[in-house]
Amino acid sequence: MAIHRSLVIFAIVALMVPAISLATDFVVGDDYGWTLGINYEEWAKDMQFFVGDTLVFTYNATFHNVYKVNGDDFQSCTVPSNNSLVFFT
User: Fold this and answer.
1) Which stretches make up the Phytocyanin domain (predicted)?
2) Rounded to whole angstroms, what are the CA distances from 58 to 17, 31, 32, 64?
3) CATH number, domain containing residue 44
4) How many domains does the chain have?
5) Which of 25-29, 32-36, 79-83, 84-88 has the highest mean pLDDT?
């Protein structure tokens, strides 16, 4: 019985490992990164993204910044009053 239980656990783990290892990091905009003048719909049109993939947004922090905003602030392009600048490490 213990061998049967061990085989079931091994099978479950074996099925999970490929799903985890197939995750892909995509740099949005490729070599151009996240910037003005790039057609990101065109960039993404032939891409296939899956659960577990990571979209990486690279940008020049000298000229750009990232704020955590709600939907209304995003739509109106308003910097939040608490200046919740997001820092990435």
Assistant:
1) 24-89
2) 29, 9, 8, 10
3) 2.60.40.420
4) 1
5) 25-29
